[in-house]
Write a structure and sequence with these properties.
CATH class: Alpha Beta
Strand content: 5-15%
Number of strands: 8
CATH architecture: Alpha-Beta Barrel
Bound molecules: phosphoenolpyruvate
Distance between the termini: 21 Å
Number of domains: 1
Number of helices: 11
Length: about 260
């Protein structure tokens, strides 16, 4: 273990739902209304990253609650001829708090590269958003024993030119691609090993103090059954949750497991 276990107290535990391309605005309102009382007492930060068309109603539904609203992507330019895109400033303007950048589905299906991830991260930070940066290896890369190389490269490139001060608004989500939406979860040991390695990469880039304060989430088929074991690990400071975030009770159970894993 790289860093002292006590450093877990320095970090915010964050449970974020990634709704992906699910829920119409009416369905989104219903899900948030169901979720609100279930997580009202949460110690952990609770975030719902919803489709663009749901952002407005989600922000309204979550007003005066402890639920923060996030988007699932943003463009790196402030405005211009980018049909179909949404800028970070637009998100900030309507009251969005978080944005997910570099999700493996965007890398896999929409040609996202570490270079474009980095540009989006920089733009989102400049607009004042908190950014959940997703990294993770493919199954083949794990089998070839190059998980650490892949992760180190993504961390370095995706965070290129991000300052130590800006790191206060960065969350890293370790999401092994083979575990996303597949029902295959990394073991708690595998998750801890890579999250610990990510922190070591951050320490090399930013020093111990910054590295110790960054929240590192695990994502990949986390659910109400396996969350407690994963979140008990020192360097697993939260979760990015896909499928299980679409069911209020399951998501709330993960938040409860997260609360139980924190000592602050
Ligand atoms: C995700 O979308 O980031 C994710 C982890 O999905 P799931 O929980 O469904 O594997």
């Amino acid at each position: 273990m790289l860093l002292d276990a006590l450093t877990r107290d320095m970090r915010k535990t964050i449970i974020a739902g990634n709704w992906k391309m699910n829920k119409t605005p009416a369905e989104a309102t219903a899900l948030l209304e169901e979720l609100k009382p279930l997580v009202a007492d949460a110690k952990s930060e609770v975030v719902a990253c919803v489709p663009f068309v749901d952002l407005g109603i989600a922000i309204e539904a979550a007003r005066d609650t402890n639920i923060k609203i996030g988007a699932q992507n943003c463009h790196w330019e402030e405005s211009g001829a980018y049909t179909g895109e949404i800028s970070a400033a637009m998100l900030k303007d309507i009251g969005v708090d978080y944005v997910v950048i570099g999700h493996s589905e965007r890398r896999q299906y929409f040609g996202e590269t570490d270079e474009t991830v980095n540009k989006r991260v920089k733009a989102a930070l400049a607009a004042g958003l908190k950014v959940i940066v997703c990294v993770g290896e493919l199954l083949w890369e794990r089998e070839c024993n190059i998980t650490n190389e892949v992760i180190a490269r993504q961390i370095k490139l995706d965070l290129w030119d991000v300052t130590p001060e800006e790191m206060k608004n960065i969350v890293i989500a370790y999401e092994p691609v083979w575990a996303i939406g597949t029902g295959k979860t990394a073991t708690a040991e595998q998750a801890e090993e890579v999250c610990d390695f990510i922190r070591m990469c951050l320490k090399t880039l930013y020093g111990l103090e910054v590295a110790s304060a960054v929240t590192i989430q695990y994502g990949g088929s986390m659910n109400d059954q396996n969350a407690a074991e994963l979140l008990a690990k020192t360097n697993v400071d939260g979760g990015l949750i896909g499928g299980a975030s679409l069911v209020a009770e399951k998501f709330a159970a993960i938040v409860k497991a997260a609360d139980a894993s924190t000592t602050y």
